[in-house]
Structure formats: C-alpha cells, structure tokens
Amino acid sequence: MSNTMTVNPVYARKLMFQELTSIQSAIKGLMSMELSVVVTLVTVHCCADYNKQWELAYTTKRQARCLKIQATVYLEAIFRNSDFIAWINLGQDWVYNLYTLYQIKVVDEIGLWTHHGIDHFTLQCANRIQIRVEETLYIVNALGVSTSLTINSILMQLRGNSWTASVLNGLIFNAITTESVNDSLVRNTANYFAIQEPYQAALAYIHLPITSIEQALFDQLGPFISINLIWIPTLAELVSIASAFDSVVRSLCSTNISFQIHIYSSHENDTAPPKWNASSITFYGGNPMCTDGYSLNFVQQSFVFTDGCARTTER
C-alpha cells in the first residue's frame, strides 16, 4: 500500500538552502555525488585553497566581499570530497596532496573545515533545476506487515533555457569551458583567462551588445555572474501573521457560505502604488533576470522561481 500527499515545491529549496547547510551534511553529500553533478553546483568560488593563496573571483569587488566563513567559496572543499582523479591535472604540491586523498573520514574532514573557520556550506540560489525531494514513512505493525506513506514528493526537473538566474551566478563547469588552452582561473597570474577581457566569464551567459535592462542590472547590482542570489529564511513574525490569517479564513469558510463563495471565486487585487498608473511611466519588467524585455505601459509580474522569461504578464 502506498499513499502520496501533495507538497509545496518551495519546500525542496527550503531544505537545500536553509536546513541542509551544515558542514556534516555537505561533506556527506559531496562524497556521494557523481562528478557530473559536482561541476554544476551553483556557487561563486573565491579561492582555490583554504589558505586563500589563489584567488578565483571574477572581479576585485567580488573578491573583497565573498570570503565569508562558509565552504562553497573554496574550490578545495569540492576537490577534497569528490572524485579528484577525474578532474583536470592542475599541478604541484597542493594538487599532489589532493591526489593522495583516499577514503576520507567525515569526522576528519569536519575537523579540517572547522580548523579553517568554515561553519556552513550554502549554495547560491538558482532556478536551473527543480530540486527533487522524497520523504516516506514506513510503518510496521506487530504482525510485521508494513505500510508506506509518502509525505513529501517533488520530482527533479532540469529547466533548460528557463535557467534565467544564470546571469547572476554561474557554474564551475562554465568557468572551465570558457577558458582557452593553458588559461588559468587564478587571478593575478600571467595566463589569467580574463586578463584581456575583464568580463570574459559573463560572455558565456549574455550576448553583445547588451540591452538597456542588462545595462541597468550591471550598473545597479554589479557585473554579470558575480551577483549573489541568497535564500533568505522567512521571518518568524511573517509566518505567524500568515498562519493567523489562514486560520481566520478557514474558520470563516467553514461557517459562512457567502464568504466561502467569494473567497473561491476568481478575482485579483491590484497592489501597485497609485503613482505607477501615470501614463508617462513605462516599465521594463518585474524580473531583473529577464534581460531581453522591452518597455511596456503596465507593471509586469515580479520574478518567481518558475519565470522562464517566455512571456510578459501584467501583475
């Protein structure tokens, strides 16, 4: 017997970006991943090594702000806990030490990360994939008969061209594939891949000439693929207010037929500020990741995870 309950797709992202960020969860996860998955982790690396000798950020400002106390900014954290033999040969002592790593114990790796001041492993948010989650309860009675109940189930989905967050932050896979032969990802080296074109990495995600929206994004937020997109946990006060509101609505729906009919009928409320209704104002979109848009005379839908920038919707 098997039963399935529906679950909000946001739940998977809450698990990934808010709850499964401990260094123990990260190390176990990295050790179990195939290399093809490891190279698609969404993060902007700051340094190759824990000692911060080799810098990797695409811009000086990004390098200055990205050295937070967390593991995703270090490429070494990825190398140590994945199939390093399958990576490109990078050379010398640091790489030799990585080659000698076999059957690392989780407790030892936790100790190393802690020694370097690392206390969490949090990936950048992205809409490249819908994260898969499946949580099942198994109940066995006194006769040994088992029953399963899937309480949360979300299928994994690759979103292809709908990966609009790629203009904000990218993958190590893309960084490697945009290089020429014998180029380096390490800043301030003689063969640094972006020494001639400082924004070389971004060219894998945008097309020249850039649009007015892309220019605004560049001027106000920063260079492409060097912009942090971070999961912000919902405020406890907001959760409390939403829960209280939901309880009131449910109570009224169960006791007031007129209210029930009204609440389930199709209606929309315009929450745009009145000043935005001026005919002299034009709008270029509600999603900074949809950079190919053009000006319209109405406020557009704010960005959401599933926005593939395929059509313009009035809010």
Q: Could you characterize what this model shows?
A:
- The chain is mostly helical and 315 residues long.
- The protein has three domains: 8-131 and 162-233, no CATH class; 236-265; 268-315, no CATH class.
- It contains eleven helices and five strands, in the order βαααααααββββαααα.
- It has helices spanning 10-19, 23-32, 35-38, 60-65, 75-80, 92-99, 106-115, 172-177, 212-220, 236-255, 257-264; strands at 2-4, 129-130, 133-140, 146-154, 157-158.
Overall mean pLDDT stands at: 79
> How many helices?
11
Point out poorly predicted stretches: none
Main sheet properties: 3 strands, mixed
Rg is 24 Å
The strand order across the widest sheet is: 1-4-3
Structural class: mainly alpha
Overall form: flat
Query: What fraction strand?
Result: 5-15%
In total, the number of strands is 5
How many separate domains make up the residues?
3
User: How do the helices and strands follow one another from N- to C-terminus?
Assistant: EHHHHHHHEEEEHHHH
Helical amount among residues, as a percent range?
25-40%
Give the N-to-C terminal Cα separation. 44 Å
